[in-house]
Write a structure and sequence with these properties.
The chain is 30% helix and 34% strand. It is an alpha+beta fold. It catalyses: glutathione = L-cysteinylglycine + 5-oxo-L-proline.
């Protein structure tokens, strides 16, 4: 089913961010909720040759990797119907054209005491993507991040902002991959 068909006739669309979208969504939204999705782990396995790196030295940004035992924390944004098309056009450039991500719909579980989960759109880069870098040791990833910079800023800023989000909004969650790279 095409994305257009999924959002057709909806009064709003939830978009889940687990990387830079947690601190810089770049689109209008009604409200946001901190929470998580199940079945994925966040990994610095995706290359970035525009925002946080360049063609010679691609930065490393996060993507989601399937893992039935894992969950990934982030922020879901509710985009009102009147802003859905504009928001998706913006994200298509930022995440798909420049980042190489694809979209999926996932179940989002809010952190707040809410029995209701939400269906949310998420952007995921897969190993089929030409700028996908894949696994490396945390030490190798940290070294690569430390020397890369792109049009949006230094790759270290991306790492620190993501770690800061986790400490402030999800202090009870231990993201070993993220914090090991930051150390």
């Amino acid at each position: 089913m095409k994305l257009h068909d999924l959002v057709k006739g909806k009064s709003s669309l939830w978009i889940f961010g687990y990387g830079s979208l947690v601190w810089k969504p770049g689109f209008s939204y009604n409200r946001s909720k901190v929470g998580y999705i199940k079945g994925y782990k966040r990994r610095f396995w995706h290359g970035d040759d525009f925002h946080r790196g360049d063609k010679e030295k691609p930065g490393r940004v996060v993507t989601l990797v399937s893992d039935q035992e894992a969950c990934t924390w982030g922020v879901a944004y509710e985009v009102p119907e009147c802003q859905i098309e504009e928001s998706l056009q913006y994200l298509n450039v930022r995440e798909v054209l420049l980042g190489g991500y694809a979209t999926e719909m996932v179940e989002f579980i809010p952190k707040e005491n809410s029995p209701d989960s939400l269906l949310a759109l998420v952007y995921i880069a897969t190993s089929e993507n030409p700028i996908y870098l894949g696994p490396a040791s945390d030490k190798e990833i940290a070294a690569q991040i430390s020397i890369c910079s792109g049009n949006t800023g230094h790759n270290i800023e991306y790492l620190h902002r993501l770690a800061e989000f986790m400490r402030l909004c999800c202090p009870e969650v231990e993201d070993e991959h993220l914090f090991s790279i930051e150390a």
